[in-house]
Amino acid sequence: MGGGHMVLCCSLLFVAVMASSGSATTTLPIMAFEDGYTPLFGDHNLAIHRDGKSVHLSLDERTGSGFVSHDLYLHGYFSASIKLPADYTAGVVVAFYMSNGDMFQKNHDEIDFEFLGNIRGKDWRIQTNVYGNGSTSIGREERYGLWFDPSEDFHQYSILWTDSKIIFYVDDVPIREIKRTKSMGGDFPSKPMTLYATIWDASDWATNGGKYRVNYKYAPYVAEFSDLVLHGCAVDPIELVAKCDNAQGAEVIPSGVTPLQRTKMGSFRLKHMTYSYCYDTLRYKIPPPECVINPQEAERLRKFDPVTFGNGRRHRGKRHHHSRGSQEQASASF
Ligand SMILES: *[C@@H]1O[C@H](CO)[C@@H](O)[C@H](O)[C@H]1NC(C)=O
Known about the structure:
single chain, mainly beta, Jelly Rolls, 5 helices, globular, Beta-glucanase-like, cell wall
């Protein structure tokens, strides 16, 4: 995986990206695929467009596919514009994530965006999650619906990772902020990671009596990626020295949540969040230490799913009601 770190600085392309809100035109340092990434698996199912900046990943009965960044990064802003497969996509998972699982098998870190397919007519769900230093026994999943159909057009999905926070963005809306707390200890991702994008058959993971298996009658499933941004501190895997990218265009990279964005984040979460581990009383009698309980979110989730987000007393012994959500009970175990 080494050897690519000289490439990062030299061949960034600057392309105007229209933020989907239509409110602003920003210029992100977009990168050609080959300058930042390399195919990971399912070669024949990965197609690079003639412009060199967009990529198709497909899933058919033979294989899924994926790509990985040349470099390891310690902190930065990582982004891709993604268009998901349309129609019947049950069992299909598209993931855009950071991990160092290949280097640290027992104590890996991970930051995930996962797109969980659905049956025709039902919306895609997106899931975010983090692991730090092998904290796989504590899932920190959240799931959301979206305010648009992500298979209809490209939308930008971004991760900002610093040593004090992780922010997930959809277009220019931050949807989740994890502030590092002392009590999180090693559970906050803190070792260099590579970026991945994959499409794969999650039938065995997302089963619900076989009902949600991938149906290859509708294959190939194609996810499109463009506007790739890898803006961070690339780390030499041997010497572990970080080289930060100070490319032009960096001034448009967000560094935190503005007050206006915080309002947007609040209303997004109240409207579209369908699951948060912080409120899952079946799973955590006491929420993990970094959780900041928002009474409005708690109330809304409780109405949405009183079994999972209730007070854990009235509904004892009725766990089977939970199975409605369990096809989404997804954890990132790649
Ligand atoms: C991470 O895990 C390793 C091995 O389990 C442990 O030795 C180390 O102290 C942990 N680091 C942090 C920051 O918790």
